[in-house]
Automatic annotation (TrEMBL):
GO terms for biological process: tRNA queuosine(34) biosynthetic process. It is found in: Cytoplasm. Pathway: tRNA modification; tRNA-queuosine biosynthesis. This is S-adenosylmethionine:tRNA ribosyltransferase-isomerase. The gene is queA. Belongs to the QueA family.
Length: 353
């Protein structure tokens, strides 16, 4: 299985640079493959209300994106840019750093006017200690001075509006440096309408790291090593899933981060509470244990996420759906349109089709 097997052509102009005016005004491409073949329908996102049934359970990722991009300088005066990958304490973090020459462990840098110590390195990441005021913690300081970490394919600087729009309306737990983008399409009114219909709502937490945008650098998919991300799946969510399954209803993951959370917590064969890191890599051949349907945005060519959705419905059907989306001028990636996918029981058999 080659990384190039997951390539598709995408015109640059289809990459959404800004969100739609209203969260729910995006489009929705539905791919029903339960019958073993993929039927495609073009809808609008509000149609999600008609696509789910009473008793179904939708599982959302309630992580909150932190303003994780920072600018500053080294002791020499050289400019640098930092992107936090993970907060490791109230005043420490692991970060990516862009600089003409990397600062050495033991040196001091300045970020947004604050002195920061370079404590060490973990592979490509730098360990930083932020010298905050006694009444501050890192999350609070970042909210005051940081920049929203827009993905690299958004070729613009972050704006004030991104602080609200590059964030789900149900965000709760700070820690992500990229949004769980499938959730960006929901507003409070739509969530309430789903509850009124009898659709269950549950939450997981997965703090999305910057590694989600890292390209797959190996030709053989089996040789790729996933980045690590922190997640929590509570007993309350597990119980909601068990009850949904017992009633013969569907578990619908909102976003690939919810998929990765639920499938990590299901590795024993049955959903169990989980708290810790995950490096789960889902690609064709993977047997899904919990998720029945997936609501997701469109993903980068040759990325681990297009491999995940290929595992869910089949490589051929998903690439056909992407080709259809390009023809129909759907908007791609974080601020783009959405897809609703039904799990294909023959996905693995469709690998070469």
């Amino acid at each position: 299985m080659k990384t190039s097997d997951f390539h598709f052509e995408l015109p640059q102009e289809l990459i959404a640079q800004y969100p739609p005016k209203e969260r729910t005004s995006s489009r929705l491409l539905c791919v029903n493959s339960e019958s073993g073949r993929a039927d495609i329908q073009h809808k609008v996102f509000k149609d999600i209300l008609a696509e789910v049934q009473p008793g179904d359970l939708m599982v959302f990722n309630n992580t909150r994106v932190i303003p994780a991009r920072l600018f500053g300088e080294k002791e020499s005066g050289g400019k640098l840019e930092v992107l936090i990958e993970r907060m490791t304490g109230t005043d420490t973090a692991l970060v990516h750093m862009k600089s003409s020459r990397s600062p050495k462990p033991g040196s001091t840098i300045t970020l947004e006017g604050l002195k920061v110590s370079v404590e060490g390195r973990q592979d490509a990441l730098f360990e930083l200690k932020f010298h905050l005021a006694p009444d501050q913690d890192l999350v609070h300081w970042l909210e005051q001075v940081g920049h929203m970490p827009l993905p690299p394919y958004m070729e613009r600087e972050d704006e004030d509006s991104d602080r609200e729009r590059y964030q789900t309306v149900y965000n709760e737990k700070p820690g992500a440096v990229a949004a769980p983008t499938a959730g960006l399409h929901f507003d409070d009114a739509l969530l309430n309408a789903l509850k009124d219909k009898g659709v269950g709502i549950a939450f997981v937490t997965l703090h999305v790291g910057a590694g989600t945008f890292q390209p797959v650098k190996v030709d053989d998919v089996n040789e790729h090593k996933m980045h690590s991300e922190y997640l929590e799946v509570s007993e309350e969510t597990c119980e909601a899933i068990r009850k949904t399954k017992a009633l013969g209803k569907k578990v619908i993951a909102v976003g690939t981060t919810s998929v990765r959370s639920l499938e990590t917590a299901s590795q024993s064969g049955e959903i169990q509470p989980y708290q810790g890191d995950t490096e789960i890599f889902i690609y064709p051949g993977y047997q899904f244990k919990t998720v029945d349907r997936l609501l997701t945005n469109f993903h980068l060519p040759e990325s681990t996420l297009i491999m995940l959705v290929s595992a869910f419905v089949g490589r051929g059907p998903i690439l056909n759906a992407y080709d259809e989306a390009v023809r129909e001028q759907y908007r791609f990636f974080s601020y783009g349109d959405a897809m609703l996918l039904d799990k294909n029981p023959n996905a693995e058999a469709l690998w070469e089709k």
